Amino acid sequence: MIDFKERYSEKKHFFRRLILICTFFGALFLYLLFKTFSLQISSYTDYELAALKNKTREVLIQPRRGIIYDRTGEIIVNNVPSYNLILNPSQITDLNNLLLEIQTIINLNDSDILYVKENFKIRSKLNRELILKRNLTKEEIARFEVRKYRFPNSYIAERYSRENLFPYLFSHSVGYVGNLNDDSLQEILSLQDLSPKETIFKYSNGFLSGKTGIENVYDQELRGFFGKKIYEVDASGRLLKEIDTIPAIDGKDIHTSLDLKSQKVAFRELKNRRGSVVAVDISDGAIVTYLSSPSFSVNKIANGLSQNDFNELIEDKNKPFFDRAAQGRYSPASTIKPAIGLFGLENNIIDWDFTIDDPGYFELPEDGRIYRGWKKGGHGKINLQDAIIESSNTFFFSLAYKSEIEELIKHLSYFGFGRNVCLDCFLPDNGLLPNPAWKMNTLNFGWFKGDTVNLGVGQGYMSATPLQLAYYSAFIANKGALNKFSFVQDDKTFPKDVFYSSNIDDKDWEKIHKSMIGVIEQPKGTAGRLRELKDYIIAAKSGTVELVSTDTKEDYKIIREEEAKRDHAIIVAFGPMPNPKYAVSVVIENGESGGSVAGPVAIEVLNSLLDYE
Amino acid sequence: MNKIFNPNKSKIYFDQYLFISISLLSIMGLLFLYSASQGSTETIIKQSLFVVFGLILMFVLSQPDPDFYKNNALFFLILSIILIFLTMLFGKEVNGAQRWLDLGFFTLQASEIIKIALPVFLAAYLYDKPLPINLLQTFITLVLILTIVNLIRVQPDLGTSLVILVAGLYILFLAGLSWRFIGISFGIFILSLPFIWNNFLEPFQRQRILTLLDPSADPYGSGWNITQSKIAIGSGGLEGKGYQMGSQAHLDFLPETETDFIFSVIAEEFGFIGVCILVSLFIFILLRCLYLALNARDRFCRLTIGGLSLLFISTVFINLAMVVGIIPVVGMPLPFISKGGSSLLSFYIAFGIIISMATHKKLMQR
Fold first, then answer.
1. Residue A611: left if φ>0, alpha if ψ -120 to 50, beta else—which one?
2. pLDDT (tens digit per residue) in A359-399
3. Which of A15, A41, A233 comes nearest B294 by C-beta?
4. Which letter does DSSP use for residue A40 in this model?
């Protein structure tokens, strides 16, 4: 047996060890409480947020895209409802039976059924809806609605599709929408501080984004703002109940300056030829007619094109996708002559009385090279006004010859050449206003005097888009002051581009107008044939773009056997005179005659705009 | 210590502090479990039956004289080892672990029985040895402890085997294991850690340890449980979200809410205040036991009370530390709170024995 003393020391020993253990566990539990404290008190907000994030699921609500109108309030692009048959899988017990029953009233194809069968289980588990069939016909809707009491867990829901009501008329101006890629979607959502993946769609085709034209340039306005629904979810992601809804804000409607009536006329008159028509209101630079031809159906593009159809469009040698109005590069040819004449007046090289003797060609003094006019034997003794009316090349060759190239370039850029003239056009080309530095850099050749001489009649390196030609036309019409072009004029108060000159006054502008009126109204004018097509006065200047340089008419006859080598036809015009309202440019590729081929199109468009039909 | 004398001069052995605090814990446990089980009446009825039966069992087991346990300690140990072997042969496999023996009316987890039997046996074995124990006895007891721990570990049940290991070591420590020996053993343990890592841990156990070190590495995979548990606890804040209002628990983000992670539910719904109250109750029970141990009648009783109460508090700590994210997820119920028959009953048994040890006095002492 253990004696008392031993018992006492053992107890003391035991006590000491107990104290040690107590201290040990005391420390452990203090640490535990400290850890809990730091979770529950110090980091409370973080974890509260995490728990909230856990139990809520945000679902995007797609906004409705804005409608696009023409200037008279006609709808160009609309959201056309389509109807989809939707199932509510979490309530459905016998899918196969339901599908069989629905099939008796609505035709379902194999891919619809396969899609539903594949996604039924997961959608049911998550309590999400499932689209059984898209774009129901009226008959299908009617048949379903009558029997809908039999299908408590399926319903018809409205979805939009984006539709251009004039799919060929506004292909390039209004453009088309396509699917939004993931990166752009993320970008758009991050602007709104949103990040959910799921979406309640308003459109059958999902997320839309403007790909070209006004749809692209005004994408942000048209798009609107996403809304969101906040649901409570469990750990498996199943939607339990709706907590909150922030409605989507629909996109803004866009009222453009486009004019449906004149657009129709331009389309009719171009007859699918390769070319372009641009007409503007000269008072504010509003684009009223904008056509690139041939055209294509934007609706087909926006709603999904078969690979075959797509390839056909891409490989079409007439390049219907190509926006000739903003991106086609053409030499301005003789249409440039009024601007060159103004340059001569501005720099005191010539005045209105100054005449030259036109033998039908210009000989470059440096090397004797010959630059020919269009009329054999020439125009004889001729001044600026007649040189414009009769389109004397020799007059402008010799005027350009006396010009300083850098000064001339600067002068021409006032008229819109070589720069962007549009505020809201889709990818406009700047054309080309050549200068010695440009030639050295790109062609590795010095500038010849002959290059300046060519510029005098709008040939050579210089090129301009139909949009720039229209701007040029409007700039002259408005006597050297013009707003940049635009499709939409809402709250845009930009200063006009103004041509300042001490040497050119209102009288000079009027004389230029008078010369351009003469192009049509005078017997010797190059576009005299247009006189009968209208009941009012129009100013114009036609041009013929030589694609291959020929010396004689006989040579050209050989050349023109091949359509693609025929001259382009160009005309710029404005009216009604003497107080012009609209300016127009027409380009018809390989149309040969500016006056008689492009001219009538310009007249018809002006007629339509001025209500002279 | 309370001895209630009845007219027939036979005594009833009873400690009101432990009895009241354990009953209180059990009732709170039922309330917590009701919320954690999403209001499952079936679970609650079953658990209530266990609680009532457990309290009765505790009372009954506190009546025999400590000598009864001392004299039968070896028998109980052998019986529980047989149960372990039976489990290995005929046990029910759940989630890849063979821990349960189906007795028809009750599935028994034999490791929960040996958890009690081993410390009692060790205390009985060391009862009449001169203290501090010599090297041979230390060696014998250590071999016994490690053998049993390993039997449990291979089931696999890392949590329980760990608790049995520490319970055995507490007894040795309280019996006066020399500090030199403790120091040397600890050194060997540290050095053999890589060996243990490679040879004694299942891949999933290694993963759990790695997860603890960085739960954010795989928040939806292996880190899911601990991440969600921390969110539940943290979002409880000071006052909690209210009874049955925990979104983490009720929307299924928390795993194993009825068993291992029930503390997360409590912390989410009752906040830091609730946590403090619960922890205080556990600490109170420990302190009461240690007080009783100090005043027990002999070495057997001291060691048994000390060993069992430390076993209890270790279980509590491991569970709380696991759900808070201090130690890896090991699978450990919260005593008197978590759902489960065997583990719940084992603690009523342990406290029955503790009360018996504390309330019986030797006649010669008086």
1. left
2. 999 999 988 899 988 888 889 999 999 999 999 999 999 99
3. A15
4. I
The DSSP output letter for A121 is H
Spell out the domain ranges in chain B.
2-365
Query: Which residue in B226, B235, B300, B304 has the most chain A C-beta atoms within 10 A of its own C-beta, making it the best mutation to test that interface?
Result: B235
For residue A196, name the pLDDT band (cuts at 50, 70, 90).
Answer: low
Alpha helices in A193-283 (DSSP H): 213-217, 219-223, 260-270
Q: In the A/B pair of chains, how many CB contacts fall below 8 A?
A: 121
* The length of chain B, given as a count of residues: 366
Largest CA distance in chain B: 68
Residue count of chain A, please give it. 613
Looking from the CA of A117 toward its CB, the CA atoms found within 13 Å total 12
Instruction: Quickly state the pLDDT bin for B365 (edges 50, 70, 90).
Output: very low
Name the token pair of A317: 């040698």
- Determine contact, residues A540/A573, Cβ cutoff 8 Å: yes
Query: Distance between CA A82 and CA A64 in Å, rounded?
Result: 14
Q: Residue B357 has which token pair?
A: 């040890």
- Does the pLDDT value for residue A2 go beyond 60? no
Q: Give me the torsion for CA of A170, A174, A175, A181, rounded to 10°.
A: -160
Residue A167: name the closest of A255, A77, A258, A257 by CA: A77
Give yes or no: A334 in active site: yes
Instruction: Give the pLDDT score at B366.
Output: 37
Compute the nearest-CA separation of A37 from chain B (Å): 7
Give dist(CA B234, CA B64) in Å, integer.
46
A67 touches A77 (CB < 8 A): yes
Cβ separation of B237 and A11 shorter than 8 Å? Answer: no
The structure's pTM equals 0.74
Q: If pLDDT is split at 50, 70 and 90, which confidence band does A585 have?
A: very high
Here the ipTM equals 0.91
**How many angstroms separate the first and last alpha carbons of chain B?**
14
Which range of A183-197, A443-457, B83-97 scores highest in mean pLDDT? It is A443-457
Q: What are phi and psi of A11, to 5 degrees?
A: -65, -40
Note whether A200 and A245 are within 8 A (CB): no
- pLDDT category of residue A491 using cuts at 50, 70 and 90: low
A445 touches chain B (CB under 8 A): no
What are the backbone dihedrals phi and psi of residue A463, each rounded to the nearest 5 degrees, phi first? Answer: -145, 155
B18: tokens are 């432990």
CA-to-CA distance for A279 and A415, rounded, in angstroms? Answer: 16
Judge contact between A598 and A541, C-beta under 8 A. no
- Residue A498 DSSP SS3: strand
- Nearest chain B residue (CA) to A1: B128
Joined tokens for residue B299 = 């070495």
Six-digit token string for A139: 């008959």
| A40 → closest Cβ in B170, B236, B321 | B236
The predicted-structure confidence for B113-122, as pLDDT tens digits, reads as follows 999 999 999 9
Q: Is A235 a residue whose pLDDT tops 60?
A: yes
Closest CA to A71 of A299, A212, A280: A280
- Give residue B268's identity as a one-letter amino acid code: E
What percent of chain A has a predicted confidence (pLDDT) above 90?
Answer: 61
Measured between CB atoms, does A19 come within 8 Å of chain B? no
Q: Do A48 and B234 touch (CB under 8 A)?
A: yes
